[in-house]
UniProtKB/TrEMBL annotation:
Species this protein is from: Paenibacillus baimaensis
Residues of the Peptidase M20 dimerisation domain: 193-283
Name of protein: M20 family metallopeptidase
Lineage: superkingdom: Bacteria
Annotated Gene3D superfamilies: 3.30.70.360, Zn peptidases
InterPro entries tied to this protein: Amidohydrolase (IPR017439), Aminobenzoyl-glu_utiliz_pB (IPR017145), Bact_exopeptidase_dim_dom (IPR036264), Peptidase_M20 (IPR002933), Peptidase_M20/M20A_hydrolases (IPR052030), Peptidase_M20_dimer (IPR011650)
Top-level taxonomy: Bacteria, Bacillati, Bacillota, Bacilli, Bacillales
Pfam families: M20_dimer, Peptidase_M20
Record-linked NCBIfam families: amidohydrolases
Amino acid sequence: MTDVQHISDRVQEIADLIENQRDLFIKVSNQIWEYAETRYEERQSAALFAEVLEQEGFTVQREAGGIPTALVGSYGQGKPVIAVLAEYDALSGLSQKKGESRKAPIVSGANGHGCGHNLLGSGALAAAVAVRQYMEKHKLPGTVRLYGCPAEEGGGGKGFMVKNGLFADVDAAVTWHPGTTSHIMSTSSLATCQVYYRFKGRSAHAGGDAHLGRSALDAVELMNVGCNYLREHIISDARLHYAITNTGGLSPNVVQSEAEVLYKMRVPRSEQLADLYERICNVAKGAALMTGTELEIIFDSGSSELIVNRTLEQVMHEQFIQLGCPVFDETEQQFASEIRATLSDAEKNHNLPQELSGKVLSDRLEPYEVKQEITVAMGSTDVGDVSWNVPTVQSWITSMALGTALHSWQAVSQVGMSIGHKGMLHAGKVIAATAVELLSTPEVLEQAKEEHTKQLSGRSYICPIPDGLIPGPVRGA
């Protein structure tokens, strides 16, 4: 490890607990990688987590909050309650062989862990197991819980779990994410929602009697054009993305009687979502009027922006300093170099700290300082919904070559091999050490709660999930 300061006996003991069971956690990670189940389809992944947790002395609530692929594993009793957040959902269309430095799908069009959630979940599992063992040995009071959270990728799983009361008595939440550098996440994120716009028209022969038809595909295209013009007139930090999920058929000589588009909207603050949502709905209604089609609006999912907590960030950073960063061997360095060779110059240099120039894998912990201004990262995460309800902290830990884009085949390849495994095991140590520190210092938890209350002063949690919405897979998946 690099940049390691004196490591305390406690942190060393926690690291050793994870090293003693490294084979188990790598096995779980590899199995989840192979399952590669997408949002709310993670049945095998959730079952595996539940089995391991029970074997490791946790009481497990399956189908937690009424969500088939969510779970909560608990150990201990009473306060404080520390939540460790795990994820295990994959992405569609990213099938890729592990340990290959060329694009090589296992099954073309199949799923793959392009965001490394096989690592995320397994690292969180490692942390929870180590915390349980430490608590038992040292008679440490309190409760540690592993939250198996489905559908982070566009499904808002944690929002449903929050809405269903699963975090009501939690004092703090800790998690991580695989990445290309090691650092404490000290930024907010974008609030988001996903909405289907389904148009229904009337089919007709496109040559002989097209005037009798009403094209739903035309409506989708007009909506997209309208939203492209709308982009100039929304705040600069807002984002609009879309995917046409149903074009209405493959025959150009038929007027398409149905078509559907899925929109993802992002804004810095959840209070801004309602206005943007309404404006996009109005564009869709206009497209329906122009084409003489009917419109159905189907809300899919959403998540809130992240509420940062500087108190918890400093606690996690202190543990990270003691543990240093993952160390990669010559073979891993060579493989990372091969991965880097597949990237464009822009990708290689994207967000690359100057100190890492010329390297293929990060070997350092990025500097951390307490900033008054809270910046916003341009991604979204349903960790945000947890952070609105309890103080939450998250780190990113090197698990892939510098420049690797998440949601890419290069990421899938690396998170299924030793580079990813080293990041995952290290994450377990950082999270576990942070959780034990919080269990041992209730005064720090109180400080984190006070900060949390201050951050939310004058604001109310706006759950992005409407009442009555049922979590489910991507439509048509």
